[in-house]
Amino acid sequence: MPAALRLGSIAPDFEAQTTQGPIKFHEWIGDSWAVLFSHPADFTPVCTTELGEVARRAPDFAARGVKIIGLSANGLESHNEWIKDINEVGSKIAPTSVEFPIIADQDRKISTLYDMLDAVDASNVDAKGQPFTVRTVFVIDPKKIIRLTISYPAQTGRNFDEILRVIDSLQLGDKHKITTPVNWKKGDDVIVHPAVSNDQAATLFPGFKTVKPYLRTTEYPGPKPAAV
């Protein structure tokens, strides 16, 4: 078994066939952030809604410098046929066009490497009884470090607003010495990082507020996002 992947691990590199041609994963990421996410199977209801949502949210990921790539244990022919359904179904909500790559992982090498296979749902298997993937998400930074992992069961669709929210928090925290509180959204007040002294905070975050000695808040650093 491969070593367990944790926050701070280097995302394993691999080569794969995708709907947009062959890739070497680290090379494909380049200097960007990346989201690698798996879905149980093509031509399934929840997955169809999820990938349609990702397609519609592609500009939101791109605005954050994030590349998106999907994966399942289906082949390229299946992926390419299914994309037509995703676009058709998704377009009933809003214009939908899947333009991100989807990895064909029929031999399950990548899903095993990233521990994506379902060990819980006995119905989430192929005709031979081999497990499909669960709804795993990896957020990977430009240094190829895993910054977020989430695994959803096959029956539950993901909330991509939450994934974007975490990316906003990670990117802001990398730029400024802050952390983000519960239910935080981009533009909200933030927390001064515990490693920052009060003297440093006075310089970095003039006017910061002390709620408790260990809890200091400050306004969102930088320009606030435009109101929607």
UniProtKB/TrEMBL annotation:
The active site is at 47 (cysteine sulfenic acid (-soh) intermediate). GO terms for biological process: cell redox homeostasis. Transmembrane segments: none annotated. GO terms for molecular function: peroxiredoxin activity. Residues 5-172 form the Thioredoxin domain. Keywords: Antioxidant, Oxidoreductase, Peroxidase, Redox-active center. GO terms for cellular component: cytosol; mitochondrion. It comes from the Eukaryota. InterPro entries: AhpC/TSA, Peroxiredoxin_AhpC-typ, Peroxiredoxin_C, PRX_1cys, Thioredoxin-like_sf, Thioredoxin_domain. Belongs to the peroxiredoxin family. Prx6 subfamily. PANTHER family: MCG48959-RELATED, PEROXIREDOXIN-6. Thiol-specific peroxidase that catalyzes the reduction of hydrogen peroxide and organic hydroperoxides to water and alcohols, respectively. This is 1-Cys peroxiredoxin. It comes from Sistotremastrum niveocremeum HHB9708. The lineage of its organism: Eukaryota, Fungi, Dikarya, Basidiomycota, Agaricomycotina.
